[in-house]
Design goal:
11 helices; Metallo-B-lactamas; 2 domains; binds zinc ion; Metallo-beta-lactamase, Chain A; 15 strands; Metallo-beta-lactamase domain-containing protein; 6-stranded mixed sheet
Length: about 325
């Protein structure tokens, strides 16, 4: 059973099996004159990443770069543990995210408060990253992959500690969670939906749109989503985020007005109904809720948080 699948020239995706879900969270390995790994998922995925390296005949000493798109635990939670097995890798992270991985106590506290008893099963251990291995991925800075470069870009919207990584060799971008989440299980059933990822607590719709407009201006051949994998051409993802964002914002206002004491629950109901209607209009009548539930709930929390705090920005 192969773990690493080639999805563009010398670019491989590894399914992290995040939370036991197939094709939920992707880890990328780029194998050129230089070798890079982009995102790690949680520490639970680290054995799979090491197995994928073996499969691709990449020695652990040969990995040059470990890069995270942002410091949410489903992207960076395993970085500290993985780095212990990659003695020569330099670690790249957004300047606003670095301190949370060097000292992960805040990430750990907030995950414990959200996930309680499940914390150990989902995330443990979260290993601190030694400061001397960290390089800040400044906007418009470059690293060499051999004949061509990777370029880092500051792309807020989903989070303020979010970078995207442009691959010159293939005119592609690793976009993390900035231009939505897709659902391969639904795509395979004929329903190709991409939902904006508006999770707490730094979601900003204007910044998200600016980041998407930036991707669009580069006329990329394809993008690689954190959840999940390749969108080629990328236009569909941009269109979907632009379709759903005004609906999400409008429903948030409605939920806060109708249920000021429990706006997240109300918003979740409203969004489920909107998505179910959209699915039906697009001819999809299969199971929907189980596939989108966790995203819709977390996105609802982020939307309500955005409305509650946007006056402070
Ligand atoms: Zn994510």
């Amino acid at each position: 059973m192969t773990i690493a699948t080639e999805i563009a020239q010398n670019i491989y995706v590894v399914d992290a099996l995040d939370g036991g879900i197939v094709e939920r969270t992707g880890i990328y390995i780029v194998k050129r004159a230089k070798i890079a790994i982009i995102d790690t998922c949680t520490s639970k995925a680290v054995p799979r990443i090491l197995e994928a390296l073996d499969e691709l005949n990449i020695a652990r000493e040969a990995v040059d770069y470990l890069i995270v798109t942002h410091v949410h635990l489903d992207h960076a939670g395993g970085a500290g543990l993985l780095l212990q097995s990659l003695p020569n890798a330099t670690f790249y992270v957004h300047p606003k995210g670095a301190r949370h991985l060097i000292d992960p106590s805040r990430l750990i506290d907030s995950a414990r408060s959200v996930y309680g008893e499940q914390f150990n099963d989902l995330f443990d251990p979260i290993v601190p990253i030694p400061q001397e291995r960290v390089v800040l991925a400044e906007h418009d800075s470059r690293i060499s992959m051999g004949d061509a470069d990777f370029v880092f870009y500051d792309t807020p919207g989903h989070a303020r500690h979010h970078i995207s990584i442009y691959d010159e060799a293939t005119n592609s971008m690793f976009v993390g969670d900035t231009t939505g989440v897709n659902f391969p299980v639904l795509t395979k059933a004929g329903y190709d939906i991409v939902l904006p990822s508006t999770s707490p607590n730094q979601y900003n719709p204007d910044e998200m749109e600016a980041s998407i407009a930036f991707y669009e201006s580069l006329a990329l051949d394809r993008i690689f989503l954190g959840h999940y994998s390749k969108v080629e051409p990328p236009t569909h993802a941009y269109e979907q985020v632009r379709y759903w964002t005004p609906i999400f914002l409008q429903r948030t206002e409605q939920a806060i007005a109708e249920a000021p004491d429990a706006p997240v629950d109300r918003l979740t109901e409203l969004l489920f109904a909107d998505i179910a209607e959209h699915a039906a209009q697009n001819g999809y009548t299969g199971e929907l809720k189980q596939h989108i539930a966790s995203d819709v709930i977390v996105s609802s929390q982020g939307l309500v948080h955005y409305f509650a705090t946007r006056g402070d920005r």
